[in-house]
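Sorry to interrupt, but I need a hand with the structure work. Could you write out one complete protein record for me, on any chain you like? Could you add the entry underneath, on a fresh line?
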Amino acid sequence: MIPKELIKKIRRIQIHTSRVVNDVLAGQYHSAFKGRGMEFEEVRAYQIGDDVRTIDWNVSARFGQPYVKVFREERELTVMLLVDMSRSHQFGTSVQFKRELAAEVCATLAFSAIKNNDKVGLICFTDRIEKFVPAKKGTTHVLRVIRELLHHQAEGGGTDLAGAFDHLNRVTTRRSVVFLVSDFQAGGYEQAMRIARRRHDLIPISITDRREIELPNVGLIELIDAETGQTVVVDTSSKALRRNYTTTAGAGQIERQQMFRRMDVDEISLMTGDSFVEPLQRFFRRREARR
């Protein structure tokens, strides 16, 4: 039985993300992603501005005036949400945990997909595959996806991105739009990501909390690695320590961004506590301009 509090949370996310999809992202999702191909629809009389390469010469010769072929895009896509549910996502120092932000942005993408008659599937992973929901259409299906994102109790604690990519390639044979939602606190996944990139339209969404890139000056504190359980006591009053912490975190982000650029993938960077709508809009606009 689903707890009442979870039902309320799912309903809140549904209302909020549906409003974002309808009022803010309307049309941008559709424009950003190509369908599977072009399908012949009809032949009509030539109009000024039509591409001469679409002229149907046989029909034109028969009627004594130019006619062009009209094509429409085969729209249906499969959208897969590949979501990191490791223990590091149970972290947040602002108004939400990273896992909650992941659920909201995934819900927005899922509602955008079904609004355009696309299918949505879900793969949740930690250091193992936690949950696989095959791609389907419909609001009821998307609500199930949101429920899994909010309610699933992960068995693993670490992050195995390479294993997640391998599983994706096994269960998804058709080319799909894959949104990878993670904080990327892992290594050794570049080769597996390259393979997935060749098979699918892969979009990484990185989620970060501000305290992962800068420390406040609050004296002695104990830091715990959520994925390994290791603890360390640090003196945050040390300017040198805070500077080194920020430098190390920044270097990791730069290294990841350079890797994405080498693979020619568009990263969407999100921060807990900030709106995800504007980063999504920027991404959709970039994709639309590229098309």
About this structure: The chain has two domains: 4-31+75-290, 36-74.
